[in-house]
Amino acid sequence: MITVQKLTKHYQAFPGAAIVKAVDGISLTIETGEFIGIMGASGSGKTTLLNMLAGIEPVTSGEITIANTDITKLSKDKMALFRRGKLGYIFQDFNLLDSLSVKENIGLPLILDRQHPKIVEQKTRELMNYLNIARIADNAPAQISGGQKQRVAAARALITEPAVIFADEPTGNLDSKSANDLMLMLERLNNELANTIVLVTHDAFSASFCKKIIFMKDGRLEMTIVSNGNHTQFFDRILEVQSAIGGAKD
Amino acid sequence: MNFQGIMKKNMLFHARKYISIYIVYALIVTLLFLFASLLYNEAIIQTLKPSYYQNLQLALGMVVAFSVLFITYAAVSFLKYRGQELGTYITLGMTSKQVIRLLSFEQLMITGISLATGLLAGIVFGKLFYLGFQQFIRIPELTFQLNTASFSITIAIFLSIMMVTFFLSALYIKRLALVQLIRAKTLKDATKGSYLLGFISILLFVGSLWVVPYAMENRHETLLKIAIALTLLTPYFMIGAGLLVMKRIMKIFPLFYQRLMLTLSNVTHRLRAFQTTLYLVMIMLGGSIVFIGLAYVLYASTEEMNDASNPASYMYVTSKDWQGLDEQSETFDFVVDNYARQIQGEWGKPLDIIVVSKTQYENYMHEKITTPALIRNDKELKPFKTPIKWNGTVLKDVQHLSRAVTNSSLFGYNIQEILVVDDPSIYQGDIFTVHKLGHKVSKAEALAYEEKLKSINKVDQIPSQYEPASKELELESDFQRTGLALFIASFIGLLFVLASGIVLFYKVLSDLPAQKEYMQSLERIGLRRREKKQLIRNELRILFFTPFFLSVMLVSYYFYLFFHRFPNTWDYMQKLGLVVIVFFVIQFIFYSYSRVRCEWETNL
């Protein structure tokens, strides 16, 4: 379970400049096994919120508790270890290392954790089979398609069996078919493996795969909607809310 | 705000990045100035032998050549490092001409400041430099003099180099397309190495190492040249293949591989760029160690070699045409005859040789020998035991000996080998007599004896074959020769080291943008600060120490080959070891500086 208490993130470009409140006192709870989408217009603070939840960005104030640990109190190095072991992150730009093969990219978090090669090999193999990317195991990232890259990124996010998977615009760099495949895959992960997934997107179609959507505006939570299980109806509902709060265009 | 304002602001913004360039340029100016001041120093012009002075001029030529190469290299690398920034200017509508103007302003400032600082450093450290030079060359009247010529020549050379550099930079800017400029910052040199090429080059390298001593021993000049060239060229391919093979082997041991996976993958991913840099640095460091190592061995062994090649304090030769001193001396007679040596089954051209009778030799050297004997007139070098022919007859059962019989410069340096035969009838025609004075002859006495010989024989100039051989005077000349060699070698060696440091430093600098991105990616995956530091250090260690160890291995091999005929081989190898330690320290300093810079730039 993730608990967020009065979370804020303020920026100041230079001393004397006006303070920008990117996230302004957000409190929320995300239950284990939930598939949540965060939506909002550009500058609404959705990516900042996700980055703070993932411990990539320091908070100005507030608390974030994941798996009974207040991550805002962790040092940079402890946060790195926590992120490596407990959190998975899927980036819009895939964040794959060009110098490593697909298999090595996926196994990297375990390798950094000094896990035994046999365990790394076994878990990597299982995930590659599950995500249908086993045949490109020895390819370099430069040799595979965008959709495959994102599946590799997803496999890497899953390899440590994290408490939560964060995804920042995971379909942003994909064509519509690859985007659909990826969202189906995330949905499957959520349903079959009960992974908690927190996703930031501005794309209503991708968001329609989530079970719950949180809408943000000016750094605050504006509205929450819950899916009834029907993608089409949920998609329409998202579009309605977007046009109501002004987040349809990015 | 106008364009001039932007240029000034840009210069100030990049001031920190320019510091390394400024230090290199200023150092080069100082070196040029100090070297030029030596060339125009009156004491040196008057005292130094013309051939030694020419060496000094040649060395300045080499200093200039290296300055051109490396100032250009540093400038172009710095441009590449700023590629994205320049690309942005052009995207915003700045013309190439304006970019060049911007750069020319920066260049002008850096040239002016470097020139001023370099010259000032030259003036300040000049006395210290001459004090060091004096230790090597031993010219008593040598003092540091400021003269217009050294200033003018330094300014002229440096400004010319800067103009060439600026011209090349402008050409680089004009020829590069916008997209290349923007991408210049990120690494696009991902390449695949070739195992086959690597395997072939390893075979050739190992084969050449085996062939070199064989070709030396058997005097196969062409084979020797080819083998040496191969030992120098094949490491280029071996470095690449070596890294690939290392990665492949490591994969057999996954536990080890996982620990080094990120470093090895990153290096092999950009193999060609690494390969070229590592090879270039290896050659420069190797050249530098050879230069300084050889010169240091020669310099440090000057007295020892003087002792070995001058058994007497004073010697001279007399004949029926040339009278000697009225001093008691030990003597032996010799004649000049010719002999031929068999090499690779073929008889060489007949050469002059000194022939002495067995009785005379034994009386003079106070030792019994069996004849015929071929004496290598040098205690230092082991003789070549190839067959010889004298007076048309192949000599059988020749005894090969190494003995210092006469001072090396006696008889115009012509007594290199002495043939001793049990045949008193050799003394016909022109007979020469070697005289060895029993007491120690100082430099002043030697000069007085020289004057005496001239006066006895009524000549103004002593013919070269009758030049007396004074050990003290020879030592002074030896020190000038080896001291100058060491000085020049140190100078050129320092430039080589500096150049290799620049190559490595700019490699690190131009890799920084990609390195930052790479580190950010790893940070997002969960890499800790310590692990990121370790990763950077591993990569830098490969970059800085692989070429160092390769060059040390190659240099040690050649050094041993060169000196293994000398009885003091181990002593020479130890001296080389000292030079290697100094180089290691220098390399470590370069490594540490680059590491700190890299960690700082990647926010570690």
UniProtKB/TrEMBL annotation, chain B:
- Tell whether Membrane is among the UniProt keywords: yes
Plastid listed as a keyword: no
Give the main location.
membrane
Q: Where are the bilayer-spanning segments?
A: 21-40, 60-81, 102-130, 150-173, 194-216, 222-246, 278-299, 484-506, 540-560, 572-593
Its GO CC terms?
plasma membrane
Topology of the protein relative to the lipid bilayer? Multi-pass membrane protein
Q: What subcellular locations does the record give?
A: Cell membrane
> Where is the ABC3 transporter permease C-terminal domain positioned along the sequence?
59-176
**Which UniProt keywords are present, listed alphabetically?**
Cell membrane, Membrane, Transmembrane, Transmembrane helix, Transport
Output the GO biological process annotations, alphabetical, semicolon-separated.
transmembrane transport
Q: Which domain of life is it from?
A: Bacteria
Segment forming the signal sequence: none
Q: Which family does it belong to?
A: Belongs to the ABC-4 integral membrane protein family.
Protein name (database record): ABC3 transporter permease C-terminal domain-containing protein
